[in-house]
Amino acid sequence: MEEPILRFLLELVPSLLIGFWAGRRHQTLSTRLAAPLVRFGVPISVMGLLLKGGLSGDMLQAAGLAVLAMSLVLVGAARLPGLAELVSPTLRLGSCTGNTAYFGVPLALAFLPGEALPIVIGYDLGATLMAWSLGPLLLGGQVDGSQRLRGLLSNLAASPATRGLIGALLVLMTPWSASVADALWWPSRCVIVLALMVVGMRLGSIHRQGIAPVARPLQLLRPLLAKLLLYPLFLLLLASLLQFKPLMVQAVALQGAAPTAISLLLIAESVGADQERAAGLVFWSTLLALITAPAWGLLLRFQF
User: Fold this and answer.
1) Can you give the pTM of this predicted structure?
2) What's the angle, vertex CA 105, arms to CA 76 and CA 211, rounded to 5?
3) Which candidate, 101, 95, 138, 123, places its Cα nearest to that of 231?
4) If phi over 0 gives left and psi between -120 and 50 gives alpha, with beta otherwise, what is residue 82?
5) Mean pLDDT on 69-74
6) Could you give the dihedral angle defined by the CA atoms of residues 109, 133, 222 and 235, in that order, rounded to the nearest 10 degrees?
7) Closest CA to 54 of 193, 171, 161
8) What 8-state DSSP symbol labels residue 261?
9) Residue 88 phi/psi, 5° resolution?
10) Is the Cβ–Cβ distance between 228 and 88 less than 8 Å?
């Protein structure tokens, strides 16, 4: 029981702490590192993970489930009793957009068998495409139909997940796909470590700035409960109702337990909207998920 928790924490905590320490001292460091990481590192990581896990039906099912679940949350979460606070587009997006690539992958590798990797990658791909294609439009306010479609297509094409998927498809068309998959596996894991450091740097910078929701986490209590407890439960129930196999149910629910992705803050900054609450949700959900995510891992591991 202790081994998967230790494996998970030893992979995440040192990277986050080093990044947090660096971000406290150099507030712009995360910004300088994030651009090349998103432009080059993330597509390479996505390619490596996709090639390692394989493009399978499970991956496509998980991607579809991510799109379905996030759509239901974005449309209906604010209508549920007790969640009226999620009427804010930022908090709705933050309650279903998780750090699945850099938090969720190590989480799955620690608590689930290797066969879960294609499912995890598929979920991350679907969720990433949803966040980066709809997020700027959702947080940026009302636009007309043609602008919305152009913005959707533009954000979808610019997504690092899209570039990684295209790269993986191109490599699979060559006779060297297995060799490339082996060659990219460890660089893909290194990108995850570097990305966790960048997340830690951003958290350190946020903490140093003393942003109000970071200082008063009770302001974000309901969105935090929605992200760390209700959303994984929702994915668990949704996947069970759709009669997916047990490993699929475990994997997608575990991805739902990942904290709010830093992409929420990047999107909020890009459109100039609700940056304080986005920063607070990313900060506190990441810290709390170091406790809640392993708890979900143990629960799901012994439930099925």
Assistant:
1) 0.84
2) 60
3) 95
4) left
5) 90
6) -50
7) 171
8) P
9) -65, 125
10) no
